């Protein structure tokens, strides 16, 4: 997550040479991931949407965001 990155707020996901960006409502913005990994990231984003939005706001205000548990 980079708060100085362009809007809308989003995350970047990487997997074995693939890269993609997702909005906080789980929509693919750009890039591609294999189908299984894309579905996992979409589900993770939806589970953590409130945390992602709070962290985006912190980072936008130059504050340190909280850690969010990664996919396991």
TrEMBL record:
<dbReference type="Pfam" id="PF13711">
    <property type="entry name" value="DUF4160"/>
</dbReference>
<protein>
    <recommendedName>
        <fullName>DUF4160 domain-containing protein</fullName>
    </recommendedName>
</protein>
<dbReference type="InterPro" id="IPR025427">
    <property type="entry name" value="DUF4160"/>
</dbReference>
